[in-house]
Amino acid sequence: MSKDSALYQQMDEQQVSLPLLQTVINFASVGVQILKPVYREADIVDFRYVFINEKGKQYLPKADMTGKTFFSFNVNPGASFHKMVIAIKTQREIESEDTFITAAGKCIANVRYVPLLDTICLFFEDSAEVEQLKKVISKKDESIKELNSELRSFNSVIATDYKETLQSLYTSLEFLISKEVALLSDASKANIRRSQAALQRMKLLTEDINGFLRLYEIGVHPTLIDPNVVLDNVVSKMQRKFEQANAEIEVKKLPALNADPLLLSWLFTNLLDNCIKFRKMVAAPVIKIRSSRADEMNVISTATKNVQYLIISILDNGIGFKDTEAERIFELFYRIHDKSYYRGSGIGLTICKKIMEMHGGFITAEGSPAHGATFNCYFPVS
User: Fold this and answer.
1) CA 243: distance to chain centroid?
2) What angle do CA 79, 86, 54 make, to 5 degrees?
3) Scanning 22, 156, 246, 338, which has the fewest C-beta atoms within 10 Å of its C-beta?
4) For 317-329, how does the pLDDT look when each residue is reduced to its tens digit (9 = 90+)?
5) What share of the chain is helix, strand, coil (3-state, %, to 5)?
6) What's the predicted TM-score (pTM) here?
7) From the centroid of its chain, how far is CA 362?
């Protein structure tokens, strides 16, 4: 292709793309006005309208002002003119609430003055419309909160009744197998034991669901605490589990932390229980707890920009998992491993994720099959 042909093709593409762009902007829900500065020597003395979308025409005294200058029809142009000049010179966006004289009368709008190359773009949102929309959203938000509260109360009552029913069924089966043992065949006894095991799993699921719902009820109340005290209490309560699994736990002293003691206790309990649950059958569990700091977290999408984080890491030598599962394991009821071998409801890690979100932080997981897993809890440092 010759140089002239390429130039003509580029011009044709621009001629096609400009009307297309104008059509797209015309359907925008906000008013758009694009103006080009008029210079006298080095000073900006006026602006000329080069494009106005349909919504943008509502903020003008006449329907079509394209090609006309800003000062030629604006009754009180001083404030807006000054903002446009400042935006052009500083190449920075300005946002304010301004008054305009329109064909329908006086109008107050939220305006963004955005410099773009050698033009200034004005984006309008009617203040009355914005306030009305805020009221509608607020009303809907209150309705959703009320509905969520009712659903949580309903779920809590149902879960409690369900738990009691499961316990009653389990006790009845236990009575049957102990008192009527002579009348039951071996197959009947095995069926009853399987039923009891299923009831226990349902009871565990109910308790975990209740625990998840409680997070929304109690909220988060962070305070400066010593996490070592919280961890010691958790380890003490789990001592029997550690002994049964012949587990070894190594803890390097953790620094003071702004956290909710109760929620932090739940976090440690779920993560340590996870380490015990998914251990190797051929090797005793070794769990390590460490802390570190991260000064630059801008490379992680879930992190707040330019915020320091204290990281509490829990490492184990268990069965691990594939890297492709690192995000999905925090999903509600998601299970990697066969539930017939590994007991659990698939809620524990979801609770951990929610606890970290409530603290303004987040949790990540790293794993490798047969080489263990690492869970990193990121707490923002104020």
Assistant:
1) 38
2) 65
3) 338
4) 888 887 777 777 7
5) 50, 25, 30
6) 0.52
7) 9
| Residue written as token pair 């010593």 | 226
Q: Give the DSSP letter of residue 135.
A: H
Count Cβ neighbours within 10 Å for each residue of 99-124 and write b for 16 or more, e otherwise.
Answer: ebeeeeeebebbbebbbeeebbbbbb
Fill in the amino acid letter for 242. Answer: F
Helices (H) and strands (E) in the chain, counts: 8, 12
Residue range 40-78, pLDDT digits in tens: 888 888 898 888 888 888 888 776 778 888 887 765 566
The amino acid at 283: A
pLDDT of amino acid 230 = 92
Q: The domain at 15-127 falls in which architecture?
A: 2-Layer Sandwich (3.30)
Contact 87, 117 (CB under 8 A): no
| Number of other CB atoms surrounding residue 224 within 10 Å | 9
- Strand bridging mode 119-126 / 94-102: unpaired
Assigned token pair, 256 = 């003071």
CA distance 112 to 122: 6
Under a CB-based contact definition with an 8 Å cutoff, are residues 35 and 50 in contact? yes
List pLDDT tens digits, range 112-129.
899 988 888 888 887 565
Choices 1.25.40.20, 3.10.560.10, 1.20.1260.10, 3.30.565.10: CATH for 222-382: 3.30.565.10
